[in-house]
């Protein structure tokens, strides 16, 4: 029997916003025995649902769904024969439960826990045992099946964060917020020793997680003291210590030993690939978004993609073939709230955020600029032009910036929704709403001053603008599911025959391809639509481009390469052939 | 837990026997040395089994429980779990159903010291959670709330 497990948690700190969508996912591959069921994956979410999927067949059907404790589930463990599942968490009446994966019927009652249980594990060898640890500072040990309370272990003085059996089931380790770890006999739960011998605490901060090496000879522990330690379980001593930094964000919340790889997750969501032979530097750090992506911008030379999320973090994806790219994060004190609009031109990345500020960040580089430009009202969108020009549409004014300085402000009597700058740098467009009437306001820009040019009344609000790169057309993404295309050379008259329903919900983003022939749009309906002005009704749909998630940005890299970002935190690249 | 009182292992072990095997009629807990411990327990005997749904017999049995629970002076706090047998008859039922309800009794007599009452009230949650789901709580502060009829009423399904 072979078991591979992916124990992987991206736990959020207790004080940070929403819980992650999937607390964790574990997979068990149990093959080779003829009676065994096919591979199954299980996942749990904050509502306490346990879902079991088939992973072998082409269609990953949902086999079963249970809600065993009626509250968030914190940890989950399969029995080695893939028949039973043990879970623990924050239930209303119970904190841990063990049930059959097939039917959901209970396999004994896991009682004796009086507060939230953080971690549970199932002994991988016979006789089966279950061990659970939690916020009542005790570790409870069960014998079964059917599982019955055997003993509670009260060696820890603070929350027990993680309990894990060794791969051979001979021992198990518990780690706790008191900075200690204990090693117990896997069959009888007798205390063998303290992790590290007991002279001093295993870590100087609380320990959040531990994981055995596949051969059971070593163990990794990760801690709030910003380090990960590798232990030799024969000698009971530290082999190496991986120091991850000094900032609060460098606390290590979870760790995993999968095959040859040792991974740990930092508080800021970075996933570190640790190197046993060189503890000082990780092999690789994966940096991604932890919150839904809210906007995207691509540099003129199409080499770098910037994406920003609801927490204000901005990621850089350079060397823009998504497959072989390098990624990084803009560091320093940045936006403290959702980034609602961004654009990049020349050496400036201009972002506007719901924290009522606009920032100029010089790129390439990965540091936020020294100061933010505070706005009087919330900026709704930003349009970026050449030579350090940017235009921000705020709730009650339109502001022109030049190289990071506010140079002009035009008070408006409507509520702005989006802004755009014509490629010729002489025209600025702002979408607005007043008394439920929508309009497109066109301004001439000369000497950094805005002058009214024209108001085009619209049937619905504007979410985004896209000028064709040749400057001829302006397309507006509308809340009415339409895309309105205007001819700029004919003083913003509507191009006949283009005003059709393009998508099934609010259109959120638009982009013209570099040769100004095709337009791509993304929408709340999860689809991307591509069409050409020559044949507006002959449209091509990428259905469920970001399954179940709103699309927030589309950009063309070349005429044949489209990039899209969605609320699913994914950046996707599409190859388009006409 | 809020009071720092933890639940001793013996509580959970004996509780398991009561709930699953119906080995005990009742178990009485007290707080001693910062832990909730078993103070007294009563085995289910053959006579109990034969007269499980005989109300008169159960009343006698109940009196025995109350005597042990309240002690000599009836001013000490206690917790108890009690495997209570009743004949449940709801409106519209033709015949009574024989059923058992496990009651969790919080006995805080009015005459107890305020310190004791506070301690037992704040530790109640820890005990109840450790015992898990499927128990009905009964709060009793004087002897009328320990009466057989009162328990009977509480144990009836709603």
TrEMBL record, chain A:
Any single GO CC term annotated in Swiss-Prot or TrEMBL for this entry: cortical actin cytoskeleton
InterPro entries per record: WD40, WD40/YVTN_repeat-like_dom_sf, WD40_PAC1, WD40_repeat_CS, WD40_repeat_dom_sf, WD40_rpt
Top-rank taxon, per record: Eukaryota
Keyword annotations: Repeat, WD repeat
CDD domains reported in the protein's UniProt record: WD40
SMART domains documented for this protein: WD40
GO terms of biological process kind: actin filament depolymerization; locomotion; sarcomere organization
GO molecular function, one term: actin filament binding
Name by which UniProt lists this protein: WDR1 protein
Automatic annotation (TrEMBL), chain B:
Any one annotated GO CC term: actin cytoskeleton
BP-aspect Gene Ontology terms: actin filament depolymerization
Domain of life per record: Eukaryota
Domain ADF-H per the UniProt entry, residue ranges: 2-156
Pfam families: Cofilin_ADF
Transmembrane portions of the chain: none
Family per record: Belongs to the actin-binding proteins ADF family.
Protein name: CFL1 protein
């Amino acid at each position: 029997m072979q078991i591979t497990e992916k124990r992987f948690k991206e736990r959020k700190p207790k004080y940070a916003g929403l819980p992650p969508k999937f607390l964790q996912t574990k997979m068990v591959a149990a093959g080779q025995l003829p009676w065994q069921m096919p591979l199954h994956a299980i996942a749990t979410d904050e509502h306490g649902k346990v879902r079991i999927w088939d992973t072998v067949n082409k269609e990953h059907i949902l086999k079963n769904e249970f809600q065993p404790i009626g509250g968030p589930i914190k940890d989950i463990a399969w029995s080695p024969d893939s028949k039973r599942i043990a879970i623990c968490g924050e239930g209303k009446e119970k904190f841990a439960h063990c049930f059959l994966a097939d039917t959901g019927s209970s396999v004994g009652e896991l009682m004796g826990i009086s507060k939230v249980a953080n971690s549970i594990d199932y002994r991988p060898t016979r006789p089966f045992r279950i061990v659970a640890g939690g916020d009542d500072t005790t570790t409870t040990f069960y014998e079964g099946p059917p599982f019955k309370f055997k003993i509670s272990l009260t060696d820890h003085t603070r929350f027990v964060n993680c309990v894990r059996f060794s791969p051979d089931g001979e021992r198990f380790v518990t780690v706790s917020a008191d900075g200690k770890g204990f090693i117990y006999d896997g069959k009888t739960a007798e205390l063998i020793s303290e992790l590290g011998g007991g002279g001093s605490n295993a870590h100087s901060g609380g320990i959040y997680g531990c994981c055995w090496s596949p051969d059971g000879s070593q163990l990794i522990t990760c801690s709030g003291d910003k380090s990960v330690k590798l232990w030799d379980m024969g000698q009971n001593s530290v082999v190496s210590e991986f120091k991850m930094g000094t900032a609060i964000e460098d606390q290590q919340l979870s760790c995993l030993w999968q095959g040859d790889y040792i991974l740990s997750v930092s508080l800021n969501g970075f996933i570190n690939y640790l190197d046993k032979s060189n503890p000082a530097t990780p092999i690789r750090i994966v940096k991604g978004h932890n919150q839904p992506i809210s906007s995207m911008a691509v540099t003129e030379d199409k080499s770098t993609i910037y994406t920003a999320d609801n927490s204000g973090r901005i990621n850089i994806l350079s060397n823009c073939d998504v497959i072989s790219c390098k990624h990084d994060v803009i560091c320093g004190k940045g936006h403290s709230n959702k980034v609602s609009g961004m654009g990049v031109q020349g050496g400036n990345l201009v972002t506007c955020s719901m924290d009522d500020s606009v920032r100029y960040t010089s790129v390439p580089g990965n540091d936020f600029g020294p100061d933010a430009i505070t706005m009087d009202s919330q900026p709704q969108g930003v349009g970026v032009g050449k030579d350090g020009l940017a235009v921000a549409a705020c709730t009650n004014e339109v502001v022109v910036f030049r190289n990071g300085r506010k140079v002009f402000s035009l008070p408006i009597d409507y509520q702005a929704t989006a802004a755009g700058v014509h490629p010729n740098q002489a025209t600025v467009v702002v979408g607005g709403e007043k008394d439920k009437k929508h309009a497109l306001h066109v301004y001439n820009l000369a000497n950094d001053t805005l002058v009214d040019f024209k108001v085009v009344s619209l049937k619905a609000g504007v979410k985004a603008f896209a000028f064709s790169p040749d400057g001829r057309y302006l397309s507006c993404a509308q809340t009415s599911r339409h895309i309105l295309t205007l001819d700029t050379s004919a003083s913003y008259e509507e191009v006949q025959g283009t005003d059709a329903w393009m998508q099934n919900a609010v259109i959120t983003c638009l982009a013209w391809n570099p040769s100004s022939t095709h337009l791509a749009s993304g929408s709340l309906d999860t689809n991307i639509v591509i069409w050409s002005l020559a044949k507006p009704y002959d449209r091509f749909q990428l259905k469920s481009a970001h399954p179940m998630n709103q699309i927030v940005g589309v950009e063309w890299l070349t005429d044949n390469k489209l990039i899209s970002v969605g609320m699913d935190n994914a950046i996707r690249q599409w190859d388009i052939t006409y | 837990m809020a009071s720092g009182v933890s639940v001793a292992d013996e509580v959970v072990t004996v509780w398991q026997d009561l709930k699953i095997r119906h080995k005990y009629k009742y178990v009485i807990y007290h707080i001693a040395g910062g832990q909730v411990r078993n103070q007294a327990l009563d085995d289910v005997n053959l006579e109990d089994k034969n007269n499980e749904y005989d109300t008169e017999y159960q009343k006698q049995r109940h009196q025995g429980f109350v005597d042990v629970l309240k002690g000599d002076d009836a001013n000490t706090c206690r917790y108890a779990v009690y495997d209570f047998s009743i004949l449940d008859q709801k409106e519209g039922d033709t015949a009574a159903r024989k059923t058992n309800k496990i009651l969790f009794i919080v006995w805080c007599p009015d005459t107890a010291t305020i310190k004791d009452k506070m301690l037992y009230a704040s530790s109640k949650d820890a005990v109840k959670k450790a015992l898990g789901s499927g128990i009905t709580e009964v709060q009793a502060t004087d002897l009328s709330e320990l009466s057989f009829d009162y328990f009977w009423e509480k144990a009836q399904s709603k």
